[in-house]
Amino acid sequence: MENRKLSSTVVSQVCYRKLPKLDLNITNRCNFRCRHCAFDSGITSMNEMSLGELEKILRETKELGGEKIDITGGEALVREDVGEIIGLGKSLGYRMELVTNGYLLNSERLKRLRELKVEGIAISLDGSTAEKYNLIRRKDKVTFDKVTNTIQEVQRSGFYTKINTTVFSSNLEDLGRIVELAQNLGADELGFYYFTPIGRGSRNSELVADPLKWLNFIRTELPRYNNGKMKISLEVPLIETEKWKPDYGCLAQREQSHLQVLPDGKAYPCAILASYGKLLGDLRECSVKDIWKNELRWENYWRETIFPYFTKWGGCVDLGEYNLDERSKKDYASVCPLRKFELEEVLRVCQKGICLASSGQNPFDIASKSDRGTCPIRGCRSCDVYIEDFEDAKQIPRKIFRKINCL
After folding, report:
1. CA–CA distance, 111 with 202 (Å, rounded to integer)
2. Is the pTM of this model over 0.90?
């Protein structure tokens, strides 16, 4: 029944939705060999589309309401005609963002990207030190120093500067320092991406972070580092059942706002399904519209390709020991690993689960300065007491403030 219900939702949306965004992998070549790479970039070769083939896709997407393109790889800057590809997108009216490891960016390239009016540049940074960074990127201190210096140069050049940080078991304790580093480098945004063991990452599954520890860090630690000047976005693979909403589910089924197009022209609903090789359509053989507006194609794809993962793992990714079992499903529900939350959004959603003591804030100060019913930290799940239940902060039982783990 649930299968039919969800697939009918897909069909009802197909005829009416626009296609606002493409994630365009223009090459799978790469100068890095990162341990978590979804596409095994630098190892697995793909027959790259020509500039003419890319132009056809961009024009067809524009006709469907296309607004934004993320140029990525592999390492996009390895491709010699990356500037022409970006220039083509700009000539068609797209907002363009370059996603890169940052190593091949230099002053000359930044000048060219400014001339092309690229809106944003996102650079990967998974550690606050060279040692932490290279646990994943497998490079050296020279690379780490070059990348951090490049981030500053990107910011000084006037681009919207984003840092992409993947959350691993190996850097979970370093995340606060990464936030501080990102702020010091002048980033406009820091995006936390939860590591999903797909592609090359499937051979390094020990890097999967405990999702409850990550959720706890978001709620109890991350607010301490937030200076309010830098945007923080993030991914979470699960959330309390009582807080789950329909739009937290599979983006390929619910939201359907973009396509992932690989260098060989093969299109997928998202990067995860692309890493599995679960083809939605080949843009060398059909048009973007043929894929995007085909009701039967989407219905069959959901029923035959996506839904079986949910019945097997509770979601689309095998998180090993962190998969939701029947007992944990009573308390938690899967969230699409690719859904982006803003920090404030997660904190609002998760207010009841935040421990007053471990929030790093003085709860009596919070209570005395907040209007009743609007306190940013509402109470402790362990005792179900809420600050707005008290007229005066002094009435709040001190047992609420004990150091406990609300999760």
Report:
1. 38
2. no
